[in-house]
Amino acid sequence: MTGPMSDTVADSGFDAQREFVTATIGGQMFGLPILRVQDVFVVDRLTRVPLAPAEIAGVLNLRGRIVTIIDMRTRLGLERTDAPARLMAIGVESRGESYGLLVDAIGEVMKLDHEICEAKPANLDPRLAVASTGIYRLDGSLLIALDLDKILEIGGMATAA
Amino acid sequence: MDDLLREFLTETHESLDVVDVELVRFEQEPNNAKILANIFRLVHTIKGTCGFLGLPRLEALSHAAETLMGKFRDGAPATAAAVTLILATIDRLKLILAGLEHDQQEPPGGDGDLIAELERMAAVAADPSAAAAAAAIPLAAEPETAGAGAHAAATEEATDDASSGRVANHSIRVTVDTLEHLMTMVSELVLTRNQLLEIARQNDDNAFKTPLQRLSNVTAELQEGVMKTRMQPIGNAWQKLPRIVRDLAHDLGKEIELDLHGEQTELDRQVLDLVKDPLTHMVRNSADHGLETRAERIAAGKPAKGHIRLSAYQEGGQIVIEVADDGRGLNTARIKAKALSLGVATDDALAKMSDAQVHKLIFAPGFSTADQVTAISGRGVGMDVVRANIDQIGGMIDVKSVPGAGVSFIIKIPLTLAIVSALIVQSGGHRFAIPQIAVAELVKVRDGSDNRIEHIKDTPVLRLRNKLLPLADLSRLLRIDGTDARGGKGEFIVVTQVDGRSFGIAVDQVFHTEEIVVKPMSSRLRHITAFCGNTILGDGAVIMIVDPNGIGRMMGATVTADMGMIDAVEDEQVGRTDNITSLLVFRAGSAHPKAVPLSLVTRLEEVDVDTIEVSNGRHMVQYRGHLMPLVTLTANAAIKPEGTQPLLVFSDGTRSMALVVDEIVDIVEERLDIEVASETAGVIGSAVVKGQATEIIDVGHFLPLACEDWFRGKSVAASEHKRRSLLLVDDSPFFRNMLTPVLQAAGYDVITAADGSEALAHLRDGKTVDIVITDIDMPQMDGFALAEAVRQEPATAAVPVIALSSHVSVAAIERGREVGLHDYVAKFDRAGLIAALKEHAAGSEAA
């Protein structure tokens, strides 16, 4: 594989299973393709950026790199519940820049069969619909697979505006 | 040794070493086209460069080798014999290079032997049937001469190595990526060092101090060293200019001499790349538009040969680059016309601009004065683009033009983009870095000092040395929550200068200056004009780097209170502010709004009613150690029974008085036309302010009410002599009305005139006038013209002329001096005016 690893490439892979790092955001379980996840870290000393889009919670110094933290609840249009005592973020990289996706809690890593993946329901909140690739049926719950590039892209659209 | 030759040697040595290795690989994998292509390319490059440098032996040899390799590329089998021959050729090339390095010329001798071999081999390769014959050629056929030469050269080489070493080994080529990576690592080291220093500041552990100091010094040196590796002489960016100018001169039929000064001045590679194109463009511009043709120059009495001078030098942490020509200078009229047609500035605004301000319009976006797009400079790139490029690297550009004598552009750019010196400040609980390059001064404002912030409703302004600067509270500008309650005191003002425009940025606290490592903003945040990057501080926190250019632009949109006195406001706003007065609107005694010119008000105060005392039947309040009398506007405007009492404080020297008002309503900017003159004492008249009839208060009336000797103190000296007569020229009846009582109180008989021509008429009527006070901007005949006319009339040539102006720029002062103005006083600076009058009175008494 030569090009950048995107979700679609992974989708078309011959492997019928995909691995996800799961996280809870606003009570809902989400999954991020594990190949895109760099690390998971505790958000500490977040610097808010004045005049920044609402989705951007701020920036912080992670081992000498400046990481842009994206507030996933705002980004996905989810209810704002009480902030957890410890803010956790999933570190990802895109075009040489580091991002941290702010989530409520980090879950386990799951290996999921592609066949339990379903298309997005038509009535899904548009913000969620755009940012996800599909929905996996789990025992007693649903996991929304996120499209990382789309999530980061919206911030870019805000940039253009 | 010639730089070019040195570079060639280094490069060719490297290439040949690669060819050596690759050839051996090729022999093992004769079918690998990639390896062959690489060898072919390297040899071809060597051949090309040799031809260019005039090295016939090397060229002929490499040409022959290339031909043979061309055959391989075309599919001929690479025999061991052929490869050996090529390797032998490469050895010969190296020998010649060694000689070249030693004597700076090719060693004598011929390579006919090898070339013949190569050619034969090439012929054989092309015709496989002859292959057997070719293989039979003994390789020992390598001539003796070559062998001897090789031996001699080898010994020379050995001695060289021992003594001075070879040039090829003295410099190594490192990829830019490696340097960039080094720079990044050093940046990290600087950060870590800063962190350690921060910790050391907090702890008193002395054991750390010494090694830390050492680390700090080493880091600084390392930083400097690595920066040096990125530095390149600016001459590198100029290399092509002599040729460009020569060609231009030829095409345009002009004689042009290009002087280059300070080529050795070093700049960061990144910065250099960014200024290269703008500089080339500016030189082209000078040659094309700036310099006249030979005939024009001779006609103008100038030397036939035009000069373009490019110079660079370092000044502090900046590099100053100047591009100057001795041509015709900028065409002010044409710039004006162009600005009008492009809608860059209005007619009105243009009329008010000084020439220097007009010239700056060429930096406005979308501006290019060349009427015809010429092949030379009219590539749709104008000075606006140049300026954008310069802005991008945090630099500044300015232009000076003298008609008939030439134009000079001055560019100031930071030495490096990676590490800058910045002021760390705090505002609204956030810390920010402000690049030191833009900081003109730092002011702490306190009540009672000369530098104060005055709040006009929501718009703060800074009174700095009797000038008002637009002021923006950083936390408000950045809309940081929680500062609406004015939690921050904003008592430090960072006076910033961008594009010749000054403004103040109010912050809550100023910490220190720190060398910060500029890290680019995330692409998701790059649209925020207020910031130009972010950095990691010594304590590990990330903070934003404020972009003074961006703040300037944001303020342009938010600061409405241009006070009409703002110094050096050099954009089109100048014209607008001119006849507009900032008025302080308040209520006192009745529901009708009242107003005074804001600039006459020294301060707005609120005092606790309990602190108001009655002394000798008058209301007083203790104010800064003095008793300050309170005056009510009318009988019904009483002091409040309880709570706080708003006051307008007027000060003159040590004296202060306060007008009691019910409420301060607003600050507005209005064109003041007094429509109904007033009969009431203390009211000049009524004007429409924000759609409401408003009484304009005559402050001059109330001052003596507060202190009976308000004007007396000053007039005593004057009244001892004969009353002096004064001609006051101002197109605004308001100012005439305003100033007349003040001047009368100062002991003058005042004659008024509405413009220059009316004033001259008065003078020619034979009225004796001891001094003239004139406004600058007036219709028909302005202050400059009046001053000039006064000078020219023999009868009035000695009369001092004092100018009043709402915008005192350096250019205007210079112009004033030329036309013979004696003094310049800001329009509302009454104390300054009285002082100036006194000075001139004393001067003429003495004379």
Key phrases:
heterodimer, A: 161 residues, alpha+beta, OB fold (Dihydrolipoamide Acetyltransferase, E2P), 6-stranded mixed beta sheet, 5-stranded mixed beta sheet, 4 helices, B: 847 residues, Four Helix Bundle (Hemerythrin (Met), subunit A), Helix Hairpins, Heat Shock Protein 90, 35 strands
Summarize the structure.
The complex is a heterodimer of chains A (161) and B (847). With 161 residues, chain A is of the alpha+beta class.
What does this structure look like?
The complex is a heterodimer of chains A (161) and B (847). Chain A is of the alpha+beta class. Chain A contains four helices and eleven strands, in the order αβββββαββββαββα. Chain A has helices spanning 7-11, 72-76, 126-131, 148-160, and strands spanning 17-25, 28-33, 37-42, 56-62, 65-71, 88-94, 97-103, 105-113, 117-118, 132-138, 141-146. In chain A, a hairpin with a 2-residue loop joins β4 (56-62) and β5. Chain A is globular. In chain B, a hairpin with a 2-residue loop joins β23 and β24. Chain B has 847 residues and is of the alpha+beta class. The A-B interface holds A 45, 47-53, 56, 59-61, 64, 66, 68, 95, 97, 99, 152, 155-156, 158-160 and B 188, 191, 430, 478-480, 519, 522-528, 530-531, 534, 536, 540-544.
